[in-house]
Known about the structure:
Elements: H1 2-17, H2 25-30, H3 42-45, H4 48-69, H5 75-86, H6 88-97, H7 108-112, H8 119-137, H9 139-155, H10 164-174, E1 181-188, E2 195-201, E3 208-212, H11 215-229
Antiparallel strand pairs: 1-2, 2-3
Amino acid sequence: MIFSSKHQALADLEKKLNYSFKNPIFLEKALTHSSAISPAKRIEFSYQRLEFLGDRILGLVVADLLLKQFPNANEGELSRTLNALVRKETLAHVALGLSLGDYISLGESEAKSGGAKKEAILSDVLEAILGAVYCDGGHDKAYALVQKLFANMISSANEQGVDSKTFLQEWAQARKLAPPTYTEISRDGPDHSPIFTIEVSINGFEKFSASGSSKKLAEHSAAKKFLLEENIWKNNTDTEML
């Protein structure tokens, strides 16, 4: 019965990925945190090695997609957009969209501390899945999966990048304004799953606040709100991921 339930869960995830594994062990490893494995077997049976591979695959594919999306962008513009798309918070956002936390195998203590919702773990597992698809199906299948998961964000990005904090800081500098300041207004929720509210301010402008599951995510959301409310961004180029 347990085996059947696990098999069904993996099948459900394969549907979300639009990829069926020839060797399901790759997917199982990609979903297994080191805390769920005895120390002697962690290298072989946890997602660590697949995450290492997936990180490189993600960077390569996103870089290639950006080159095609922005034929006139320079190296700096491409690098900034790439860094925003492959950072931990963005990957965790994509992972949440797939409900990856529901499929991850965690040790008891890690599970109790909310490991299935931690950005670091979610982003690592997403990269491990990309590595697993590469090992199981090759370059083309891994490329297709990255394209599927990141296509909307890439198509709505621009050469200025999608990092709202960087954009806001550079906007302020260009106008000889003091850099934006970010202040924690509140922290709510349980210790293992806190919600932070951050306020961003620039002298001479209204203050804006936003919330997120980490301080960094809340800061990006606050910066995004500032940019949109002050009509600095005329449309939402931020693609929901910040």
